[in-house]
Design goal:
Elements lengths: L7 H21 L5 E3 H4 L12 E3 L7
């Protein structure tokens, strides 16, 4: 996977998104499912651009 940006500000907004997802994962624990970048910042990353989803990895039942 490659993540490409037009400028450093876009990269910073993506980093903000990833940090927010990590914070939500910590707060929500196992109930955290996923977040879409276009839902996080629909002005900078409008619908139509490739969406990036950060999701919690599901653990296999043992």
């Amino acid at each position: 996977m490659s993540v490409c940006f037009d400028n450093p500000e876009e990269a910073e907004r993506f980093a903000d998104f990833a940090i927010q997802c990590a914070s939500d994962m910590k707060a929500m624990g196992d109930s955290y499912d996923h977040e879409h970048l276009i839902d996080f910042d629909d002005k900078q990353f409008p619908y139509g651009k490739p969406d990036i989803v950060i999701a919690r990895l599901l653990k296999a039942n043992k």
